Amino acid sequence: MQHTQSPRQPGALTACAAAVAALLWAAPAAWAQDSKAEQEAKDKKDVKELPQITVTATRVNSSLLKTPVAVTALKGDDLVRDNVKELMNLSGMVPNLQFGLSSADSGVQISIRGVTSTNFTEIGDPAVGVHIDGIYSPRPQGSLALMFDLDQVEVLRGAQGTLFGRNSTAGVVNILPAKPDFKSNYGWTSVQLGNYNAKQLRSVYNLSLGDNLAVRAAVMVDKRDGYIKQEQDLDDRGIKKPDGTFSPDGKPDADQRLNKKVSPSEYYTNTDQWAARLTARLAVNRDIEWIGGFEHYKNGSAGEVGLKDCEMAAGTRFACGSQGQWYAKVNVPGKIDMTIDTLRSSLTWKLNDNTELGYKVAYAKQRRYQQHDDDGGQNWLPGDVGMMQEWGNWGNQHAIDWASYTLSSNYRSWVNELQLKQSFSKWRYVAGLFTLSEKNAIDFAQDNLIAAPYAMPQGQFYGQPDRRVESKALFAQADIALADKLTGTVGFRYSQDSRTDNGGVSAGLWDASTPWYYNGKYVPPCVPGLCTPHNGTDFTFGMGPFAGIGVYPSPTINSHTMSWKKPTYRLGLQYDFNPKQMVFASLATGYRPGGFGDKFDTCGGGTCADGSTQKYNFLEYNPETTTNFEIGHKGRYFDNKLELSAVYFNTKYKDMHATGMNAVGVRKLREGETCPDWNPACEVVQGWKTENIGRSTIQGLELEFKALPWKNGNLSGYASVLHSKVDAYPTFDDNWICGYRAEFGAAPCAPVYLGTDTTKRGRAILDVTGHQLPMAPKYSFALNYGHDLALGNGMTLTPSLGMRYQSRMYFTVRNLDNPVIGDYQKAYTNWNAAIKLAGADGKWDVELWGTNLSNNIVKNWMGQGNAGGYTYNSYNPPRMFGVRATVNY
Fold first, then answer.
1. Which residues of 221-239 are buried (b: 16+ CB within 10 A; e: fewer)?
2. N- to C-terminal Cα distance for the chain?
């Protein structure tokens, strides 16, 4: 059923926002009076207050509640309690922060308030900027790295177009590792055991070498079996003959070059990773301090694999059967071999009492090999397989055999940032220069080894030896005291960005009518003919991607350069009612540069509709921009026992980047060729590209709180309302499981446009005006409670419980609400719990913990089924639990 948007909702939300804004301006004075009266009546000896949290969201250290930005700070101890070990584990812990995983290329998708990116290539940019200690980290695959020994993680929501590293349209995640401490020598070690044979070690030691030198070492090791059941793909069907029977020959259909039996510790969804960090801190004198460190990360896991949504498929002919949700049959066992080596340096020099100069630099080198089974053993049902004829089979083949290979990748980046900070009685500012330089190389291949018409292989190889990303920016932001208690903010940034492809090559054919893939190492017995052209044991490592790019036909050189320039700004006002309560308003812009893809023949290897041949295009796209307005309130109440932050936001999202298969050209039909009914626009050439999709509006309310409701109790949480809608997307293609919609009672796909507009021709044009953006659930809510119970001998027992609710979330702007093939994750509630026993002297503690105790099956990435009417997705982990013991020394 097509999703429709109530026209009353935006107005209702705006009215609600206006009411909240009025309350924010009017209420603090009354609250302050009540708080003062209560404080005078209290016994001071029993008063306990919430600790002040300092953040770096404005590139200066400031109280969280005095920072006029929508920012959440998560302390390192809380992250350990919730078993957070990588960025994706933060899902549900921050309002409107969502994560997804593209399993084939280990690309981590981060979304804030519905603003996101799905371009994980070596020159694509994320919409959310990830920073380590304020230094930008460019590649999305780096978000898989372990998070350990942290001071805190800060999540800034909304456009960050002035101060933070690379310009960001969605927001920033800033990960702050713990710094070496001059004061004393100390350390801690924790050992954790859990279900699925999970084992984890974390250890930290801080060594003080005097009042001006300290060294800190930290290590983390994380291993766990896969939580799916994995079997070898040894299915043997053979082609379907004209009499309707299959032709097995005793040998597997799927490629067997890499197929082998593996143990649960090597299944997809396992973990096998470790990381270490060594950091030094030197106070050269009272004015100059340097912090430098080296970090190494190693990932030897199998990665993730796509899985059918068994709950949605239940009761249909595509039901999962007895194996259940967590099952895959694979012929390409997962393998990731990724290392990230990072050097970071930060120098601060206090030139005088009101002037500080800072310089930060980071060099990172990421290497990765990855092999991935793209089909997960999903084959067409026997009755849906087409019969092979003398002229071939243009329908569904007898088996599916897809795989992706990152044969090598080498990503190198230099990030430099110079900052000047000055503070005076009436104003302060931060100004700086930012530079980013990336040199990336990758060899990436995709296989489809059983393809129409003769069930022979086809594939592509992308050899990119030198892809460059350059970014430079000048920025400045000032806070000016306009009047007593009133502060104005003005910020400006000028960015220059460029992308370059030097000598890149794309080669191969999505054409299986000739036996080019075999590279002369194998001759099919009958092409054309009524027999299976190959079985899985006929492939050798002298074929396809393992033989190198020289095996592939039709190589295309991709050398190309593009550049962009863009100013962005921030304007703000902050009014302090008193030292504990304030309101703020801001208007900020952000931008993400455009880009291009591999050189592509938009004539589809033939003649274009206008008569030209080989009309190449780099599939270019323009920058995207966001303009974000916010009004908010932050305050502390009731003797500092309650902290409250409330923010209303309204974002205008323009030229959003959307990556996928799209029409890129129109070819001329060959003599005598006509388009069949099931593909009436067969002359349209399709290609993988990023395109700009028009305009959207995003608005909502975010409420965060922390409280000490009674003695020894700690309460925290958030509530969020997010309303996103597409304002214009005239070229959206409703090409989603079209052949099965009638079977499942879904609205049919929109008719294919056959007019003269080449931007629409060949697409099933669906009007998605008013639809929700992907990764943007309307409602989310979280509540956490912990309580300290005093035991005998000075020991403390702390049980804690956390609940997180999220309403329905779509993965495309299609918003298809069908229970079998809908493009959504249904609403769910997750429960986490822990109980911790701590010794009297603080030297040890033992903690039982559990996450996703409700055992929800939650999608974070969605695609169409490989072989029929179902969806094929990536998932968050199921229920996890374990015990953790920590020793402090």
1. bbbbbbbbebebbebbbbb
2. 61
Please tell me the distance from the alpha carbon of residue 74 to that of residue 55, in angstroms, as a whole number. Answer: 10
Tokens representing 233?
């793909």
Q: What residues contact 710, with CB distance under 8 A and at least 6 apart?
A: none
Strands 128-132 and 171-177: parallel
Question: Do residues 529 and 242 lie in contact, with contact meaning Cβ atoms separated by under 8 Å?
Answer: no
Are the CB atoms for 348 and 356 separated by under 8 Å? yes
* Beta pairing partners, 587: 571, 629
Backbone angles phi, psi at 863, to 5 degrees: -145, 170
Residue 35 has pLDDT above 80, yes or no: no
Residue type, 107: G
Residue 312 within a domain: yes
Which parts of 207-333 fold into alpha helices (H)? 310-313
The answer to whether the CB of 84 falls within 8 A of the CB of 749 is: no
DSSP class of residue 796 equals E
Question: Do residues 753 and 761 touch, judged by C-beta distance below 8 A?
Answer: yes
614 dihedral zone (left: phi>0; alpha: psi -120 to 50; beta): left
Going by C-alpha positions, the residue among 308, 348, 312 that lies closest to residue 329 is: 308
The pLDDT tens digits of the residues spanning 545-564 come to 999 999 999 898 989 999 99
- Identify the three-state secondary structure at position 838: strand
Measured distance CA(279)–CA(298) in Å, rounded: 18
**646 and 24 in contact (C-beta within 8 Å)?**
yes
Q: List all residues 6 or more positions away from 607 whose beta carbon is below 8 Å from its beta carbon.
A: 613, 667, 668
Phi-psi sector, 114: left (phi>0), alpha (psi -120 to 50), beta: left
d(CA 879, CA 828): 14
CB 296 within 8 A of CB 276: yes
- Considering the domain boundaries, does residue 850 fall inside one? no
Closest CA to 406 of 332, 336, 465, 350: 336
CB within 8 Å of 587: residues ≥ 6 apart:
570, 571, 572, 627, 628, 629
Token pair 């082998």 is found at 260
Kindly provide the residue ranges of all beta strands, DSSP E only, lying in 225-287, ordered along the sequence. 229-232, 271-283
DSSP string, 16-31: HHHHHHHHHHHHHHHH
Q: State yes or no: pLDDT of 210 exceeds 50.
A: yes
CA dist., res. 497 & res. 132, Å (int): 21
Full residue range of the structural domain in which residue 550 is found: 227-263+305-323+344-475+505-557
Query: Quick check: is 427 in a domain?
Result: yes
Place of tokens 């550049």: 563
Half-sphere exposure of 304 (CA within 13 A, CB side): 21
CA distance 495 to 497: 7
Strand extents, DSSP E, 14-140: 54-55, 62-63, 71-75, 97-102, 107-112, 128-132, 135-137
Q: For residues 375 and 329, is the Cβ–Cβ distance under 8 A? A: no
**Residue corresponding to tokens 């052209």:** 533
**278-323 pLDDT per residue, tens:** 999 999 999 999 999 999 999 999 999 999 999 999 999 999 989 9
- Compute the distance between CA of residue 535 and CA of residue 520 in angstroms, rounded to an integer: 16
The DSSP code for 390 is T
Torsion from C-alpha of 750, 754, 760, 762, nearest 10 degrees:
70
**Six token digits for residue 818:** 């069908």
Structure tokens, 135: 């230094």
Residues in CB range of 756: below 8 A, 6 or more apart = none
- CA–CA dist 94, 92 (Å, integer): 6
Residue 618 lies in a domain: no
How do residues 732-774 score in pLDDT, each as one tens digit?
999 899 989 999 999 999 998 888 887 888 889 999 999 999 9
What span, in angstroms and rounded, lies between the C-alpha atoms of 475 and 164?
9
Contact between residue 588 and residue 162 where contact means Cβ atoms under 8 Å apart: yes
Specify whether the CB–CB gap between 203 and 187 falls below 8 A. yes
Domain count, the chain: 1
User: What is the H or E stretch that residue 224 is in?
Assistant: strand 213-224
